[in-house]
Amino acid sequence: MNDTNTIEGDLVKRLVSELITHKENLSVAETQLGAVLALEIQVHQADFPRVCGKGGFRFQSLERLCQLMAKRRGSPISLVLLDSTVGESAKLPPFVVVQDWPKYRFTRLAKDIADTVFEEPCAALAQDTPNGSTHMTIYVSHTERDGLVAAVEALLQPLFKAAGMNNGRRMTLGIEREG
Fold it and tell me: Which superfamily is assigned to 7-81 in CATH?
């Protein structure tokens, strides 16, 4: 994995790494083009569909999330998924529930993304059930705008669902207001 220099680049790299199986082939390159931060993602060919999602929906969610981070940052972020020449295509393996999964890593990722998008500091909590499902709750201030809360929740739900499946968990995500 390449080192990233910005919070936004680091968050994109961490989120994409949870979507893929060939983590050693993940590359996130940052380039500053004037005021624009350009993030170029390259993954193993077998992971390309995992990052894109059906009809490009998952990648579009990543792009929209970058737009929200850019708004808070005050300068645009461009996200590009490069065609992969590394590895060969492969079928996705069947889903298998994993009881011992990196819950802390996901909780920290959810909190860090929320802190980058929202004005007030946030908290995150993951609750597991014995049947292999997990519900991630992000707690935000009651002062955050309704539209922003709804948009972030809608963008993160499919991304965390896919990342959870890749890590052996059926994951749901919701945002609740504190106070």
Answer: K homology (KH) domain (3.30.300.20)
